[in-house]
Amino acid sequence: MIIKLAFLSIVRRPARHLLLLLLLAAACALPVFLLQMTAGLSNGLNRAVEPFSILMGAKGSPYQLVINTVFLRDHPIGNIPYRDVEKLRAGGKADLVIPLAFGDNYRGFRIVGTEKEIFDYRPNKTRGPWLSVAEGAAFREPGDAVIGSETARRAGLAVGDTFKSIHGLVTGAGEEHGGEYRVAGILAPVGGPYDTAILVDIADVWRAHRHEAGGPVRRGGIVRRNAAPKAEAAAGPAAVSGKGDVTAVLVHPTGYKEAMQLLQEAQRAKGTDSQLIFPSQTLIALYSMAGQSKEFWQLLAGGMIGAAVLITLLAMYWNGLSRLSEFALLRALGAKNGIVLRLLAAEEALLLLAGSAAGWLIGWGGSVFAARAVAGRAAVVMTTAPEPASLLPPVAILLLGLAAGLIPAWLVRKKDVSSHL
Question: Among 65, 186, 319, 372, which one is least packed by beta carbons within 10 Å?
Fold first, then answer.
């Protein structure tokens, strides 16, 4: 009965209560949106970096190496010889060493030259492979390509389709090499930058750049240092004699001890053109330097929650004050204080539940829309699952708002109500 009376009291004043609901929803939605976006960005960064335990690349900015290799943005620093890959494999401190070669694109989608072992790579032993083929098969023949799920969707490519690569990393800013790739497989979504990648055999990348054999190391390109063009031509288009350069090397150490040993060896090495980094540490340093750490956004979200709670307190206190004449009438008609307080509490609870629920849905829905709007175009793919922290604003609004709304009725419970009639 109390709930029914409270509901009828709310619908009897639709304009005032609708305005109050909108205010509560807006106050709740903003901090929820910020908390969801902060968590989504942080989780997206962690998920993107997770497969890259250690990276080796040409000497230069470690930030650029991470941005280029992990997030498929910006230009490569340069190249390192394939013998560095062989040295890492022979060292016995890594259970997987995967070369990566960049330099070409198709309609803006990065072509990544690599080796087929990448499809067996499990960054987390409790989960499946990082890159698994959902349709078709991994590359087997020269010219085969395995494309990311976003590449397939946005480029309209399917298994069996062919395309030609463009030299360089800017859409429409290069020249076709003339060699065709055939889509052999499509990757399952990974929720990261490599959803927009095109994976090919690294030998195909070397072959596409064979006209650069013997040239100097060049920024953003793949240079053949050990090539033998005449032997390659004699062997036919499917053969590549000699190993080319690589842009980066993904290294998965056998353990923490081995990882530290690899880092120490790289720091002690002299006369080398390569560097070895931990991408997760580089990313933390980058965001800390920019003052955009997760703690910063959490502090900002905390401030917004405080503002939302303050707005709610004022709104519900005002709503309680506006009902004093009704409290007085109920008291004059013989209603006990307990009945009046329960009726008001039920009414306030209904308003707060509806407002905070609507606010949470708007905030979460807005974060999902924002994440999907930039999916496949931003370097980071944000997660959209509801975060436990996003429940804090509606809970705080509900509890504190209810207390604020009951204050006026509690203050006049033992006073003469004739002045409010």
Answer: 372
